[in-house]
Amino acid sequence: MRYLTDRKRAEGRGSAHSGTAHHWSMTVSAVALAVMLPAWLYIFGHALGGTRAEVLATFARPFPAILTALVLVVAMRHFAKGAQTLLEDYTHGSTRKIAIIFATSLAGVLAATGLYALIKIAL
User: What does pTM read for this prediction?
Assistant: First the structure.
């Protein structure tokens, strides 16, 4: 008869040793978004009703352009990590892998497209 303690039975099945880092990453990005998003929404809101020339002039200035780039990158990274956590919790097998790859790719494509558009506007 093999006698295994609870610890020995659980060893190798649990922690991937990245939970704390993931939690802190999500917390830091959430706080960063909570600080940046109101300022970005204010800038975007003022540019929203303007003419094309006014919008181009707004986003050609350094602060709105840099803030927009930061919001895009941080928001898409936060989305990708959050979607990965959600998918790991609720999907299994190859569906999980495909869904995580899709969510991460979607976040990357959206960030790249937004940054490309911003560079075209700012320059």
Answer: 0.82
